[in-house]
Design brief:
The protein has a domain of about 70 residues. By secondary structure, it is an alpha/beta fold. A six-stranded mixed beta sheet has the order 6-7-8-3-9-10, sandwiched between helices. It has a four-stranded antiparallel beta sheet with strand order 2-1-4-5, covered by helices on one side. The radius of gyration is 18 Å and the shape is globular.
Length: about 260
């Protein structure tokens, strides 16, 4: 894919469930190597949008391009090929409780690659080390803290070396120190691996720390209220709702970042 082209292109997108529209007429792009945030209050459609971006649901209208391919109009075989090119780290880690960490991460490799058992073992160890879980291969999910489960889920999302990662509320339920460590890991993936990252979150600490650019979803208008860098939106947006949303906890951090 051309490095100058967006990794994700959303055009005239309207989405929802059954006959109910949640968001309408969305247009935005995600650039290569960018950490892109999807923000908004409770019930605005953040998670709904992500589920459509990763191909779990079909939109009412519009298109979703990923790596230059229209996932919203792809058949099942085409969609499966596109989905193998990105990883998804779910909110709770979504690990199989009856399997070790090595088995959880290795499951993806067994299903989608021709690697032998030894090659899978090495790849699993590499991915767990990348998320600071070296030596935890034989641990069960129930033996891990919340932050460790999230990192293990991330290791699984990284198993196929994707250039695009989706995070669903990565810091939800974590204490401030663990959340900050996860933010550093996300930044490291972008800086060292060149990974493009889409983060769905309402955690302002993370928003001001990691995102390059965001869209802010408005439940009332069912659309995008603002787009841009959060520091600039906080200081320059003409919309009082946007400034208020970002200033609840972010004002001090934004001032320190100047």
């Amino acid at each position: 894919m051309n490095a100058d082209k967006p990794i994700i292109e959303v055009r005239n997108l309207t989405i929802g469930y059954d006959a109910r529209i949640i968001l309408k007429d969305l247009n935005f792009e995600v650039a290569p190597g960018e950490i892109f945030g999807i923000l908004g209050g409770s019930g605005c459609g953040k998670s709904t949008l992500m589920k459509h971006l990763i191909g779990l649901y079909e939109p009412f209208k519009g298109s979703i391009g990923i790596f230059g391919e229209n996932i919203s109009q792809a058949n099942e075989a085409q969609k499966r090929k596109i989905m193998q090119r990105f990883g998804v780290a779910y909110q709770g880690g979504a690990l199989f409780g009856s399997m070790t960490l090595a088995e959880n991460v290795g499951l993806v490799l067994e299903e989608y690659t021709d690697l032998n058992a030894e090659q899978i073992r090495r790849r699993v160890s590499e991915k767990l080390a990348l998320v600071d879980l070296a030596g935890f291969e034989n641990f069960m999910p129930g033996e891990l803290s919340g932050g460790m489960k999230k990192r293990a889920g991330l290791a699984r999302a990284l198993a196929l070396d994707p250039k695009l990662l989706f995070f669903d509320e990565p810091s939800a339920g974590l204490d401030p120190i663990t959340s900050a460590e996860l933010d550093k890991l996300i930044l490291r993936l972008r800086d060292q691996e060149g990974t493009t990252i889409v983060v769905v979150t309402h955690e302002l600490d993370s928003i001001f720390t990691i995102t390059d650019r965001v869209i802010m979803l408005d439940k009332n208008t069912q659309g995008i209220a603002a787009t841009g860098n959060v520091h600039k939106l906080l200081s320059e947006s003409p919309d009082p709702w946007v400034r208020n949303f970002l200033s609840r906890e972010g004002l001090k951090r934004a001032e320190m970042a100047k």
